[in-house]
Structures are given as structure tokens and as C-alpha cells.
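User: Can you predict the 3D structure for this chain?
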Amino acid sequence: QVQLVESGGGLVQAGGSLRLSCAASGRTFNTKTMGWFRQAPGKEREFVAGITWTSGSTYYADSVKGRFTISRDNAKYTVYLQMNSLKPEDTAVYYCASSRYVSGTYASSVFYDSWGQGTQVTVSS
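Assistant: Here is the predicted structure, written as C-alpha cells:
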């Protein structure tokens, strides 16, 4: 099992930036892909971004392309989500997730094995 702990959420004005972090521990050797999802009140959880540990290949939802950047620090087993030009519609609880698979449907929650507890991001207008 992999344990994931997110941090970095908070309140920011529209147009501002935040950087989320997700630290992995436990059976990290079994982690091949990491992802970020978000869930707004009354809405389903949706994919935001994903990255593979080895090659660093990245994947983004259309809604965040050009504004968000996912990256990883292999030595620290940490994944980051840099969020720029934030909009009120980005307000949600953001979750980090890990997968033992290196290829598949990155945007689907079933692709991932472990989840963090989530961190709140609120963007005011």
C-alpha cells in the first residue's frame, strides 16, 4: 500500500497561483503513475493531470492545459501541481492518486490504487 499526503491548498484570488504537493510513502517502488483529481461540491471527481514516474510523460485535462503543470521529484517521491491563472471554477478539493500501472486510462479514477485525503483549493472572484 502507498500512503499519500497532500499539502499546499488554500484561498487565493482569481488570477493567482498555488502549488500543491503530494508526498508518497510506503510501497513506493510499486508506483508507476501519479495523478491529480479534483471534486467540487455537487460534482463528480474529475481528472486534472497525470505523470509517469520513469519517463515523466504528462497528461492534462483540457480545462487546465496551459495553466497547470504537474511535475515530480523522484528522489523525494513527491509530485507537484503548479496552478497558475486560477479561476473560481477551479475551486474544489484536490486529491492525489497513485497507480501501479504505467499505461492505461489515466483520466479514469479506477486506474489508480491509492488516494490521499485531499486538500481544499478555493479561488475567490
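The longest strand covers residues 18-26. The mean pLDDT is 95.
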